[in-house]
Amino acid sequence: MSLHGQGWRMPDEAHPHDLTYMAWPARKVWKSDIYGVQDDIAGIARAIAEFEPVALLADERDVRAAQKACGSGVEVVPIPVDDLWMRDTGPTFVVGPHGIAGVDLNFNGWGGKQRHENDRLVAREILADERITRIQAPIIGEGGSIEVDGAGTLLATESSLVNPNRNPGRSRDDIERALKELFGVTTVIWVDGVAGQDITDYHIDALARFAAPGVVVMSRPDPAAPQDDFTRAYHQARAVLREAVDAQGRRLEIVDLPEPVDIGRRGRDFLACYVNYYVVNGGVIMPRFRDQRADDHAAAVLRELYPGREIVRVPVDTLGEGGGGIHCSTQQVPKGS
């Protein structure tokens, strides 16, 4: 549908939610890690359900196991899925004068890196099931590739959107125009990111998030770690954000959230960052990496950034091995205006 004159906008994550969508992981993707990642997802779902309703999608054959793992506080919905990354496969919701709508960003397996016969239809299926207006985006992307402050500003990495594996032949200006129309923003702040080294091509939600309009929290690598493409991307992004002006004409306050260090042996793709937290009604669900000092410091920073919200720590030992985290596995449905 056309967005012209519709008045849709994407609210910030702290805007009140009606519910959270999640999805149940499948063995064909996770193989020997399946039980560990199912434990992680069930733990996240149970934690969120203490604050707001959770609807978890699962293949028909997995419904019973998912319900048993998540408990009666989580609704399990029989819709086929390939994987658990609801942030990217589900609709990205916007609000307007007539309630809510869902933007379908045409999920293509992060540029064809993973099979997605079911996941490419997840946004459409959710919106049809709930009879919510579907807005089909004129670009290809994922929910994790954008971050908004709810006041007119959007952050994104070029690597995950201005990329021929999603949007061949489309310029950054083309994509920016689409983002502004889809999500009701007037300012897009681009940072470089990193292409080709993780499945998402470095989504913004693993690098920088809005804690409030004018306040950005960044995942800071250990200063003693060797320089690589990701540490260079952090420094490039920080330099851009330090000079950026948001939609309200403000310079941004940057808050560093240091990454954990003492996490034992992990795979190359393990996502060891705290900024992939998820804001719920009255709380913040954050990862626990068992680096006690780093975990405690991150919790203290988030407590200061989100006063009055309960900070809940959830282990993500197996989920992180898949290159994602809590935010990647969730998608909020905002309350309509």
List the keywords.
337 residues; alpha/beta; L-arginine/glycine Amidinotransferase, Chain A; 4-stranded mixed beta sheet; 16 strands
Q: Give the end-to-end Cα distance, rounded to a whole number of Å.
A: 20 Å
Which structural class matches the secondary elements? alpha/beta
Helical residues, percent: 25-40%
Q: List the strand order in the largest sheet.
A: 3-2-1-16
Q: Architecture in CATH? A: 5-stranded Propeller
Please name the fourth-level CATH homologous superfamily: L-arginine/glycine Amidinotransferase, Chain A
Q: How many E-type strands?
A: 16
Question: How many distinct domains?
Answer: 1
Largest sheet: 4 strands, mixed
> Per the principal axes of the C-alpha atoms, what is the gross shape?
globular
Can you describe this structure?
With 337 residues, the chain is of the alpha/beta class. The protein has a single domain (17-334), classed as L-arginine/glycine Amidinotransferase, Chain A. The protein is 27% helix and 24% strand. It is built from 10 helices and 16 strands. The protein has a 4-stranded mixed beta sheet with strand order 3-2-1-16. Strands 4-5-6 form a 3-stranded mixed beta sheet. The two termini are 20 Å apart. The mean pLDDT is 96. This is Agmatine deiminase. One of its GO terms (molecular function) is protein-arginine deiminase activity. Keywords: Hydrolase. It comes from Amycolatopsis xylanica. It holds the Pfam family PAD_porph.
